[in-house]
Structures are given as C-alpha cells and as structure tokens.
Amino acid sequence: MLAKCANPACSARFRYFHEGRLFVFEPKRVAPNRGPPNDAEDADRSHCPQCCWLCSSCCLELTVQPDGDHGMNVVQRERAPQKPFTMNHRTLTAA
C-alpha cells in the first residue's frame, strides 16, 4: 500500500491519485542477482506489480526507475534541452 512519497527526503502523504505521479513496474520473473523464489509466498510476491508514488513537488525534479532486483530507485529527471524561443511574423499575427 502507498503511504508516502517515494523520495526518502520527503514526508508528503499519499491521499489522492490526481496529486503527484504513480509508478507501476512489473518485476522480472527471476532477477539476475537472485535465484528463483524459495517458497510459494515468495513466488507470488515476485509476480506482483511494484507501485510507488512521487508527490506533486518531487515529481517535477525526480522520477522512479526499476533497479533490476525487485526494487526501485528514485533518480533525478533528465531535462530535455530547451530550444530558444524565436519570434517571427506568424507568431504576431492574430488568427
């Protein structure tokens, strides 16, 4: 169950789906660093989707990525290069 923001430095509580960003990952059947599950309970858990949530503030700067071993890492978001804004005569004309 989601209780708080996945950012360890944030204490925001999860309340609504429309706030922040929800991440859902399907775990791999067998992780590379880990052998097959030992018992039935472990086997069921390894096939359950992993969910986490970043609050509205944290999701602006951070994202969540699977770590390959049934877990997730909170990492800095990569920014797309900003294109310089240029004005031309079409920008100024009203439709």
Task: Report on this structure.
This protein has three helices and four strands. The protein has one domain. The protein is α+β, with helices and mostly antiparallel strands. The model has no long low-confidence stretch (mean pLDDT 76). The strands form two sheets. Strands 1-2 form a two-stranded antiparallel sheet. Strands 3-4 form a two-stranded antiparallel ribbon.
Task: Characterize the biggest β-sheet.
Answer: 2 strands, antiparallel
- The helix/strand class is alpha+beta
What is the total domain count? Answer: 1
Number of helices: 3
Could you write a compact summary of the structure shown?
The chain is of the alpha+beta class and 95 residues long. It has 3 helices and 4 strands; from the N terminus they run E-H-E-H-E-E-H.
Topology at a glance:
Elements: E1 21-25, H1 40-46, E2 50-54, H2 58-61, E3 62-66, E4 72-76, H3 89-92
Antiparallel strand pairs: 1-2, 3-4
Spell out the key features of this protein.
95 residues; alpha+beta; two-stranded antiparallel sheet
